[in-house]
Amino acid sequence: MSGITGVDAAGGRVRRGAAVLLEVLRSEGVDYIFGNPGTTELPLIDALLEVPDVHYVLGLQEASVVAMADGYAQAARRPGFLNLHTAGGLGHGLGNLLNASVAQTPLVVTAGQQDSRHTISDPLLFGDLVQIARPAVKWAQEVAHADQLPVLLRRAFHDSTAAPSGPVFLSLPMDVMEELSAVDIGAPSQINRQAVAGGLPELAHALAGIAPGRLAIIAGDEVYGSDAAAEVAAVAECLGAPVFGSSWPSRIPFATAHPLWCGNLPTQATAIAEKLGAYDAIFALGGKSLITILYTEGPALPPSCAVYQMSSDVRDLGRTFWTPLSVVGDIKASLHALLPELRRATQAHAQVYGAAGAQVAAARRQHRAQARADVLTHKTDAVIHPSVAAWEVVRAIGPDIAIVDEAIATSSDVRLFLESAWPAQYSFLRGGALGWGMPAAVGASLGLGRGRVVSLVGDGAALYSPQALWTAAHEKLPVTFVVMNNQEYNVLKNFMRQQKDYISAREGTYPAMDIVNPSIDYQALARSMGVPSTRLTRAADIAPALEAALATDGPSLVEIVIAAS
Q1: Are 534 and 547 in contact (CB under 8 A)?
Q2: Cα-flanking dihedrals φ and ψ of residue 480, to 5°?
Q3: Residue 33 backbone phi and psi in degrees, to 5
Q4: DSSP SS3 for 162
Q5: pLDDT tens for each residue of 34-81
């Protein structure tokens, strides 16, 4: 079967729908198709033989495929393109598709559909793909004719990046992919979405009216999408304000080495309220930064704390908390325009704001010094303490290697110890559904030009999508997988301990939360997929082993046995 078949009577180039799709992808600058093929994808796979500059990245299970495209899109700052297989494959990928939706990752998701000419007979693997996908995407549609491919594909790329960004879905029937077409694909549209918010003089006046030291800035995930870390730092320095990250982030979009960086907010409403109770107002950049997990009594924001917000998504403004003034616009462009207004409004008290910033920086240094001192008290524990593992791993990784984190038992400590001038170093499981981290690290490496990435993953999370090891080996990617192994669902046990009326908490017995009898052999698992591995039980061995792994050209796995609850 050939992707290109000839010309029509009018001299137009006739080719199959699969070839039309690839033409559009090339014009949109797509380098990678993430997928796991089946029967309905055969026309696309065949057409790839004539398009060598579009590389098919094979994942061995659709959940891994989706997360690879997610990691790629986040790292490359452009939409990821993926191709799943019928209703079953789409179903396999839904967990990570929901993660991508929550994280607002721009993805163009496609799935092969059965030949529409025999769907009336309920063929094997047939399902209503549009209805299956719809809850997890911005919109979903089935392509009816090959001539529709250029318009619908370009619409998908545009809409996946428009605020709020996120996945979109196209169903591709097999007969559409084989249908002959002479359609002209046209050219990509150029759309500038850097709209500057209105009301900036009023916002500058309001922010300057808050007493120095009484305003906190929250740098949400949207700061990363807008590439606005430098502008956020300039605003924070002007106001002498601490900068916090989201409670459950997709990214840390701010330099962790900056003296005004004060870490991520906690994940319980009462703890967030306690932290923000020291301020009269917050300036939230981006939406959904106060995400909580378990319910606790009372709101995350103290009633006395006013909310000022900036976001490109108008739906996030005033969504949960009353705001005296919030503005809609691109964060980078809007902060750039806000800064001159803000500097004029604060000029008369510049020294006072500077002193407030110095106090924040001093408190930050003291907090980090105490955290390091606490680690030292556990350095000689018989089993590696989670905080020690986090400290040693961060120390070995350094400030310049990308980190994709799904190791919940150590994530808070890892974020605490980061010290980097690179505001794109760290990404995290924003959606909360496990199985994202290892394949997302594979995609992130591709998005960084096959750059080096460290995947931090808990032992439980590693069992959701270990197929990513094979893809990393197959693609010869420099991804180091670090498995934090406590042989349990540690976060669940900790949550249960907080519920004093739970029998499990009183008796210290937690059904279905231990990964033992048998224990998982991660060394054998890694070797079976072509990845060299090592197992560590001493804290002193962590940094040397990780440094050695990071010096290799391909993937590797380092298992660190850490203390359980």
Answers
A1: no
A2: -105, 115
A3: -110, 120
A4: coil
A5: 999 999 999 999 999 999 999 999 999 999 999 999 999 999 999 999
